[in-house]
Amino acid sequence: xxxxxxxTGGILDPSSVNNFTIGVSSSWLNTGGVFLPQVSTVSFVGTxxxxxxxxxxxxxxxxxxxxxxxxxxxxxSMTLTSTMTITGGTLNTGSGNNAILVGRNWRNSVGAFIANxxxxxxxxxxxxxxxxSNGSPFNNIEFMAMAEPGFPGLHDGHLFDDFDRRNAEYQxxxxxxxxxxxxxxxxxxxLPPTSVQSSLMERQLDRx
Length: 208
Description:
By secondary structure, the protein is an all-beta fold. Helices cover 3% and strands 42% of the residues. It has 1 helix and 21 strands. Strands 1, 3, 4, 6, 7, 8, 10, 12, 13, 15 and 17 form an 11-stranded parallel beta sheet that branches. It is globular and about 35 Å long.
């Protein structure tokens, strides 16, 4: 659609049969309605600054940020049951440091992600999901509900490529890893496998 999608009431359903893609060239403002994402994709294709995303507690399935020059600021938290893809433009978590929960992949190939002090949580339960940051650092990261025992999500789940972070917290069920100043600090979990260590830019592993 050529403009802003506004939901002030009612239900928007992209169809569980066809799972239509919704293209939005401006903002997504849900202030009182319900969006049923099914397994659809919401594609943000605007090319100007000053655009906003407000989900009002309704999940997305897949989100595609694909607007060269577009700049979207989140007005509240965002939950994706599937994949976040950024192929153009900028996604900013906003002054409220709004959280993002992702059910599957994070694929940033061209655009920018402005994390501020936000937390991105990955809660996928299948293997071989991937995170591509394209040089945009995360602030806080949590991994939850992973299927792999010992070090769920890192061993057979999330594979890292070009993964940048500042002060990231990795939470795996009741086990915690912290990245602080470039070093791994282990709060009770087993060490990650060598393949994960090497993919994390050969950071020093320190036992806490």
